[in-house]
Amino acid sequence: MTARTEESNAALQQALSAAGLPQDGAEPIRLAENDLWKLPGGIVVRIARPGQEEAAAREVAVARWLAQNNIPAVRPMPWDQPVHAGGRAATFWELLPRHRHGTEADLAPLLRQMHSLPRPSFPIGQVQPFVRITERLSAARSVSADDRRWLLNHLRELKQQWSCLPTGQPQCVIHGDAWGGNCAVPEEGAALLLDFERTSIGPPEWDLTSTAVAHDTFGSLSTDRYAAYCKLYGRDVKDWAGYPTLRGIRELRLVTFALQIADRDPMALKQAHYRVACLRGMHGPRPWHWQPVG
Fold it and tell me: What value does the CA radius of gyration of the chain take, rounded to a whole number of Å?
């Protein structure tokens, strides 16, 4: 067992003890910013990174609210949550059956349903599109001083643009991180939404921009598939005057994520530097065909 696994397992054991659950038979699913463990009996434990107690509680509340509104989504277990474990918050969820990642066609109807709901009675906060960008740029070791200055100035410009976005669709509850990996399609049954860490009040266009960027920036989504996605949702976010700002924020987030990965994985360094160069206008117009990192 690695030191990372031992650390997560220690938090898991505290969480299981606090929840009154047996402490044997747990298997790691994924150990990342949030650690996922599978328990016997069809339960998944999600251990949040430190300092995310409020976000963990909000995730559970949002999932229960979606259930009350008949939106297909992963369901939390029916007991008081979260519990605290080694300075981290742990939540407990129903294990999904065998499934695949959703596509943009699976995601669009779920977003349309979610965006049509009235606001919940509990507070979920306002979307924070710039969360962790400054911290990532400040901590990055794989970026030059000149690129760091440029990126920080670009961030200031985007913040200014965000503060005066043109009128769009009415603000509503948004998923906050709406991509195929946060949609699951069981072998039998309907597609489900997952991961409500970023769910908040905000412009619905923020959710739609993730898929638009897959077409516009990555070039990984064909024009026909993107058009089908827009038809399923009911509109094309790229027709909105505020889209370039949202795209710019998404791209900067993806750049800083790549820099964060490159600091610990040299294999990601070339892609991180390529993304920076694209933003700085050194590789022509989009699509830039960015490749996954991490």
Answer: 20
Q: Are residues 79 and 116 in the same domain?
A: no
How do residues 183-216 score in pLDDT, each as one tens digit?
A: 999 999 899 999 999 999 999 999 999 999 999 9
Are the beta carbons of 218 and 210 closer than 8 angstroms? Answer: no
Alpha-carbon distance values, 180 to 89, 128, 129 (Å) = 25, 21, 19
Percent of the chain with pLDDT over 90: 90
Instruction: Provide the domain count of the chain.
Output: 2
Could you tell me the maximum CA-CA distance found in the chain, to the nearest angstrom?
58
Is 293 within a domain? no
| Secondary structure of residue 70 in the 3-state scheme | coil
Query: Domain span at residue 49?
Result: 3-95
Determine the 3-state secondary structure of 283 from DSSP. coil
H or E segment to which residue 161 belongs: helix 145-163
pLDDT tens digits for 58-84?
Answer: 999 999 999 999 999 999 999 999 998
Q: At what angle do helices 223-233 and 204-213 cross, to 10 degrees?
A: 160
- Lookup result for tokens 């072998």: 187
Whole-model pTM: value is: 0.93
User: At residue 83, what are phi and psi to the nearest 5 degrees?
Assistant: -110, 160
Q: What is the residue type of 119?
A: R
Q: Helix, strand, or coil here: 94?
A: strand
CA distance 167 to 22: 52
CA pseudo-torsion sign 247, 248, 254, 257: negative
Mode of pairing for the β-strands spanning 43-47 and 83-85: unpaired
